[in-house]
Amino acid sequence: MSTQIKAVIFDMDGILIDSEPAWQLAEQTVLNSLGLNLTLEQVEQTTGLRIDQVVSYWYQRFPWPHYDNMDTANKIVNEVIAQISATGEPMLGVIDSLEACKRLGLKIGLATSSSSRIINAVLDKLAIGHYFEALESAENLAYGKPHPEVYLNCANALDIAPSQCLAIEDSFNGLIAARAATMQTVAIPAPHTVNQAKWVIAHHQLADASQLPDLLQTVSA
Predict the structure, then answer these.
(1) Which Enzyme Commission number(s) are on file for it (predicted)?
(2) For residue 78, which of 29, 18, 125 has the smallest C-alpha distance?
(3) In what order do the strands lie in the sheet with 7-10?
């Protein structure tokens, strides 16, 4: 890549913490209690979307009585926070990657579809909040990922041009958002999806974050 990287912007769920299983279980538990019968494969379709968008997505396909998007979304978030607080662990290579960013003088940001409640739960559980110079959530934006606004807001907060930011994502919706923001991108997809053709839109694809420090050395030189 020709543009030198000056900042790294991390997605959160599935990148900093292995919370995707928690989200999937919470969504299945809450939505199926409303009469849906969602499989894991179906729930994976909405990975990377903001939680209110997830609830709306499934309501449009399988309407249920007494629809209350906010109440349903809050129940899912509460489930996820409980699981994160109990068993949350950093993804492989995350701490080394954050340290590598510091060592290389790269600014560090977070751009996530998750709410501030989830952000706080994750950063507190992993004790990594001190690494980040900007924390941006799409929770109060008009559109979440795959819209690029949350990434553009993070770049602005870091005072770095989007083209000089490297976005680290595990979801296709997140990659679309980062590409639309004109950022350079790294995909670290879930192991069972690594061979899917869609990841070709990323500038780089890694097996896990333990490979990120070497890549950062190259793109920030």
Answers:
(1) 3.1.3.22, 3.1.3.50, 3.1.3.68
(2) 29
(3) 134-137, 107-112, 7-10, 165-169, 184-187, 204-205
Find out whether 206 and 96 touch, Cβ atoms under 8 Å.
no
* Average pLDDT for 61-84: 95
Angle between helices 116-126 and 69-87 (to 10 degrees): 0
Alpha-carbon span 14 to 145, nearest angstrom: 15
Question: Within 13 Å and on the Cβ side, how many CA atoms surround 25?
Answer: 12
Check if 159 is active-site.
no
- For the chain, what percent of residues have pLDDT higher than 90? 89
Report, as an integer, the average pLDDT of 179-200: 96
CB 202, CB 169: distance < 8 Å: yes
Residue of 11, 18, 52, 170 marked active site? 11
Is 11 in the active site? yes
This model's pTM is above 0.90: no
Phi-psi region of 159 (alpha: psi -120 to 50; beta: other; left: phi over 0): left
- Model confidence at 1: pLDDT above 50: no
3-class secondary-structure state, position 138: coil
